């Protein structure tokens, strides 16, 4: 993947804002693998075992060794030369505490579900709900930061008009969205209307919204990682159509938000359709 490909990405998009301080020096370089490892060294990036995190070649991952267990045991993050793994590396550098905690959860689940010591064979482990939820978070999460519980409730109950239109002006002052999942970011390189994140609500006080950008990032990294230390469940996530966020796409009119194939109504549990 050439540096030119990275420069073709529209880094002014609002969903990429959390990555800008990290990616700017990398875009100026000629070897992104080398640059991300230099940044990792400079910030003292470590995994949950205290091992230095470095981005290594995919070929370094032994056949049959689970990806997450390898990171836990060695600190090496197998990294291919593609956008998916590039964004993964950027997220490691931007939200190091969250990524470290996710790896700790995933590695612990792998070891819990295997009988043999050491790095287990993937066929000897059952993924389990917690590991599945951690993977979903890692790949497709967005952090939904809000000081108004009513906004979180409206989003969780798919009251799209209430949040995105009636209370549109509240975005940025009462709630924010910080994309986290690297697969989500990869999809947003070529955005389309139906891209939907798994949003994790994070309640914040007035102080958060008055912080400078870098303080917000550090606060979120710490708070979300502490939350994940107790585990994570898919029940905590709520769907969030990313391009519905106020100002994140053009032509956000009534017809845009009225598209129920994207802005779907909340399913009522136990409801049945009309009889034939």
SSE topology:
Layout: H1 3-8, H2 20-27, H3 32-43, E1 54-57, H4 67-74, E2 76-79, H5 83-94, H6 96-112, H7 128-140, E3 141-146, H8 149-156, H9 160-166, E4 175-179, H10 182-187, E5 196-203, H11 206-210, H12 213-229, E6 238-241, H13 254-257
Parallel strand pairs: 1-2, 3-5
Antiparallel strand pairs: 3-4, 5-6
Helix pairs in contact: 2-3, 3-5, 4-6, 5-6, 6-7, 6-12
How would you describe what is shown here?
Pfam families: DUF3025. This is DUF3025 domain-containing protein. InterPro entries: DUF3025 (IPR021390). It comes from Noviherbaspirillum cavernae. There is one protein chain. The protein is globular, with a radius of gyration of 20 Å. Helix content is 45%, strand content 11%. Helix 4 links the parallel strand 1 (54-57) and strand 2 (76-79). The chain is α/β, with parallel strands linked by helices and 276 residues long. The chain has 2 domains: 3-137, no CATH class; 139-257, no CATH class. The longest helix is centred in the middle third of the chain and has 17 residues, at 96-112.
């Amino acid at each position: 993947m050439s540096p030119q490909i990275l420069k073709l990405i529209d880094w002014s998009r609002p969903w990429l804002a959390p990555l800008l301080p990290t990616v700017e020096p990398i875009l100026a370089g000629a070897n992104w693998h080398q640059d991300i490892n230099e940044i990792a060294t400079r910030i003292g990036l470590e995994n949950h075992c205290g091992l230095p995190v470095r981005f290594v070649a995919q070929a370094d991952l032994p056949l049959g060794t689970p990806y997450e267990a390898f990171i836990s045991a060695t600190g090496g993050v197998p990294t291919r030369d593609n956008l998916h793994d590039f964004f993964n590396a950027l997220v490691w550098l931007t939200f190091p505490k969250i990524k470290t905690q996710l790896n700790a959860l995933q590695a612990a689940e792998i070891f819990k579900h295997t009988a043999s010591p050491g790095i287990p064979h993937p066929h000897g482990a059952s993924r389990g709900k917690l590991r599945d939820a951690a993977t979903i978070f890692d790949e497709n999460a967005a952090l939904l930061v809000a000081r108004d519980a009513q906004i979180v409730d409206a989003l969780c109950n798919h009251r799209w008009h209430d949040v995105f239109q009636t209370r549109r002006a509240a975005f940025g002052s009462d709630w924010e969205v910080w994309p986290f999942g690297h697969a989500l970011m990869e999809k947003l390189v070529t955005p389309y209307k139906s891209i939907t994140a798994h949003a994790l609500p994070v309640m914040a006080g007035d102080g958060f919204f008055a912080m400078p950008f870098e303080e917000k990032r550090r606060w979120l990294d710490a708070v979300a990682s502490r939350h994940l230390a107790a585990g994570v469940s898919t029940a905590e996530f709520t769907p969030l159509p990313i391009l519905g966020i106020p100002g994140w796409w053009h032509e956000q009119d009534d017809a845009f938000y009225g598209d129920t194939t994207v802005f779907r109504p909340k399913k009522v549990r136990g409801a049945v359709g009309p009889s034939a």
